Amino acid sequence: MTRAVVVGGGLGGLAVAARLAASGQQVTLLEATERVGGKLGTVEVDGFRFDTGPSLVTMPLVLERLFADTGAPLRDVLDLQRLDVAARYRFGDGVALDLPGERPAIAPAMDDALGDGAGAQWEAFLAHAQRVWDATHEHFLESPVSPGGLARLSLRVRDLLAVAPWRSLRGVGDRYLRDERLGLLLDRYATYSGSDPRRAPAALAVVPYVEQQFGSWYVRGGLRRLAEAVADRCRALGVELRTGARVTAIDTVGDRVSGVRLDAGERLAADVVVANADASTVYGPGGLLPHRASARRLARTTPSSSGFVLLLGLAGRDPATPHHRVLFPPSRAAYDAEFDAYRSRVPASSPTVYVHAPDDPALRRDDDGEGWFVLVTAPRHDPAGGVDWDAPGLAPRYAERILDVMARRGLDVRHRIRSCTVRTPADLERETLSPGGSIYGTSSDGALAAFLRPANRSPVAGLYLVGGSSHPGGGLPLVTLSAEITARLAREQSARV
Prior knowledge:
Strand order of the largest sheet: 7-6-15-16-17-14-18
Pfam families: Amino_oxidase
Shape: globular
Oligomer: single chain
Helix content: 25-40%
Distance between the termini: 11 Å
GO molecular function: oxidoreductase activity
CATH topology of the largest domain: FAD/NAD(P)-binding domain
Enzyme class: oxidoreductase
Pathway: Carotenoid biosynthesis
EC number: 1.-.-.-
Radius of gyration: 22 Å
CATH superfamily of the largest domain: FAD/NAD(P)-binding domain
Structural class: alpha/beta
Number of helices: 17
CATH architecture of the largest domain: 3-Layer(bba) Sandwich
Number of domains: 3
Largest sheet: 7 strands, mixed
C-alpha cells in the first residue's frame, strides 16, 4: 500500500487526501495550526460568526465530482443555495446594478440599470469568454501544466485567437464594452486572482463567464462548512488528520522523496508527499525542500495581493441587504490609482469595497443584527520593503478610512456598529502561513504567468504541489481542480512503481 503524506490542511490538501485515500492509499495529513481548512476560516465575535475566507462557490460541478468520487454525493452533505442576485454593484455615478444569478436575466438587468445596449455589450463579451473557456478548460484548467500543453494549444489557431495571450483582460474588455461601468465590472474579476486587470491575461475572461454561466452559490451555515465536510470525508476514508504538526523538511533518498520531518523531531516515511503550502515555502531558501531552479522560476512571478478586512457586527437588520455588494470608486482612473497603489506597496486611499452580508440565521446572534465581512484589496505584509501592517496605529486608522469611504459611497453603517474586528495581511500570514498574507499565492499578471506557476508534479520524484500557489491557481474551484489533477498524477506514479 502506498504511503502518502499531505503537508497542509487547506481545501487543496483535504481534497487531495480524500481522493488518495479513496484510491486505496494510506494517507496522513499534517496541519501546522490547530485546525484544518486553511483560508476557509471562521471567527466568532460578539455572537456573530464570520467566514474569513471565500464567500462564494462557483463551478459547483467541481465539488460535486470531489464528493461523488470519494463517497456520498454533495447534495447529501452540504446545502448549496444559488443566489438570485450574485452581487449589487454601486458605481461612481450612484447607479446600482443588481446582477442576477441566472445568465438569461443579466442582459435585461444591465439595460434597465445602465441603459439600452449595455446588456448586448456584455453578452458579446460573454460570447468571447465562452470561446476562451471552450479552448482552455479541458487542456489547461483540468490538466497538468506543461510546455507540451502550451504547444498543443498554440497549434489550434482558433483557440489561440480566442485566448489571445498577447492581450490583457482590460484590453479584451475594451473591444466589447463601451460603457465604462461595464469595464469596471470586468476589471473587478481580475482581483479574484489578486491581479491587475491592465496586466492580467485576457484568458481571465473565463472568470466572469464561469460565475454567470454556472451560477453563484452559497453554503448554508457558511463556507467554513465546506472545509469541515471534506475533513469529515477524509476521516471516513481513514485519513489520519493531525493538527499542530508543523513539517520542517521534506526528506529524499537519491532523486525521490522518502518522507517528512516535524519540528518535534519525528520523521514520517512516505512514498508520496503532497505539499499544500505556498511554493516558496517548499522550494525557497530555507524551505521544506529547497530547489534552486524552481526558486529562480518563482522569483520571476508576482505575489498576489492580500486583503484588509473589517468584521462588523451591526445593530438592526435590513431585509434588502444583498448577499454581496461592491462599491466602486468614482471612475476607472480612480480604480487604476488603486492598482497603482498596490504595485507601489502602499494601501490605497480610496479603494473598491466588497461587502459579504449573508442572510443566514446560523451566522448571527439574533434577528436584530447582521454580520458584515468588509474587504478591500491590500498590499502584502512586508515590513522590509513595503507595508508593515503591525506598525502601531496603522490598522485602526485604515479601518476608519474604509468606513469613511463606505459612507461617501452611500453605505454609512458607523452608527450601527456593535463590534468591529480588524484583520490585516499580517494576521492572514500568521493564521494561514501564507507569505505576506498573499491570498492567491502568485498573481496572474503577465502573459506567461499561468505557465510560471509551479506545476503539480515537482522536479523531485514523488513530490507534488497542490493549492492556490500551484497550477491552475487560487480560488475554490481552481484549488479543487488542483487536488483532482494532483491526485491523478500521484495515482499514476503509484501504479508505475
